[in-house]
Design brief:
The protein is mainly α. The protein has helices at about 10-15, 25-80, 90-110, 115-135, 140-155, 165-190, 195-215, 225-250, 255-260, 265-275, 280-305, 305-315. About 80% of the residues lie in helices and about 0% in strands.
Length: about 325
């Protein structure tokens, strides 16, 4: 809705102040972004489950291609981003953001081709956790990151020695791209209004990945059922979570956001228990408890910073 990129940052902080009296609104303003991140994580898990069923039809690269193409079309139609009035730096940020998204998705699905989902997600989360330690200026965030890291390794079974080393390398690479995604998502959100930057970056990612998908899957990508499933995967795994995360990063520090991303393996395990009736071991339950404890600590740290964040936004 905003017509100029410079208005993007103020827009995100303006609605928070009128919400009200005394201390309650500030708490809501701090917890709001956290809720967006968690909702995005749940959406990703359902989208991932659907993508697994689609891979035999279209292949790993084909699924990524359909996902990115459908997501780009949806976002570009909804946002209708302006192509004029942006600086060279703005466009550079969008292009790099798009390349990062393409690499993140491609590497992760290559990992899923070689190793199980749980270890793949666990290894991928190491990227955001490393970012949380490097980006944070507060020692307490390193504590939460360490706690979450312990949980992530427990959730992975305590070791990765039996996994395909190439699959492990792809998953770690996807984690590095995830960390880069956090950084460039935040930068894009500051330079473009609403989700315009995300829509443009998704278009870049789709164009970059299209030749790879065609090379692997060819005419399989034109099957109506495959297109329908790919579109559903795009909405659940790309459109909703990326939009929610981009909006959250307007008000949430990158280090805190990265720690919250450690919930991904826990959400996946919970979804497996509730939907697939997969029983959790004591070790897995302990892992989830550690990850949730770390995330709660991150939320409390963010709430504590609320008082300082409001004046900064006002200035």
């Amino acid at each position: 809705m905003t017509t100029t990129p410079s208005a993007a940052a103020p827009t995100s902080s303006t609605p928070v102040a009128p919400r009200t009296p005394v201390g309650a609104p500030r708490r809501r303003g701090s917890l709001g972004p956290v809720g967006l991140v968690l909702a995005g994580g749940v959406s990703v898990q359902f989208g991932g489950a659907l993508a697994v069923t689609l891979m035999p039809r279209a292949g790993a690269l084909g699924v990524v291609t359909l996902r990115l193409l459908a997501a780009a079309l949806v976002l570009l139609l909804i946002c209708r981003p302006r192509l004029r009035g942006h600086s060279r730096t703005d466009w550079g940020t969008v292009v790099v953001f798009g390349l990062v998204m393409a690499a993140m998705n491609g590497l992760f699905y290559q990992a899923l081709d070689r190793i199980p989902l749980g270890p793949a997600v666990t290894l991928e989360v190491l990227g955001p956790l490393a970012l949380s330690v490097l980006a944070s200026r507060r020692a307490v965030n390193a504590v939460w990151a360490g706690l979450a890291l312990a949980g992530v390794f427990l959730l992975g079974g305590g070791g990765f020695d039996s996994l395909d080393p190439i699959g492990v390398a792809f998953a770690v690479g996807a984690g590095a791209m995830w960390a880069a995604y956090i950084v460039f998502s935040a930068r894009t959100g500051r330079r473009f209004p609403q989700a315009d930057g995300l829509a443009l970056a998704m278009g870049v990612a789709a164009l970059v990945f299209l030749p790879l998908g065609i090379a692997e899957s060819g005419t399989k990508l034109l099957n109506p059922a495959t297109i329908a499933l790919g579109s559903a995967v795009a909405v659940l795994s790309s459109v909703l979570p990326y939009t929610l995360e981009l909006l959250a990063l307007r008000r949430l520090p990158a280090s805190t956001f990265a720690i919250l991303m450690s919930l991904e393996p826990a959400v996946a395990a919970a979804a497996g228990f509730l939907i697939l009736h997969q029983a959790l071991s004591v070790l897995q339950a302990l892992a989830i408890a550690l990850v949730i404890a770390a995330s709660m600590g991150a939320v409390r740290t963010q709430v504590g910073r609320g008082k300082a964040a409001v004046p900064e936004a006002a200035s």
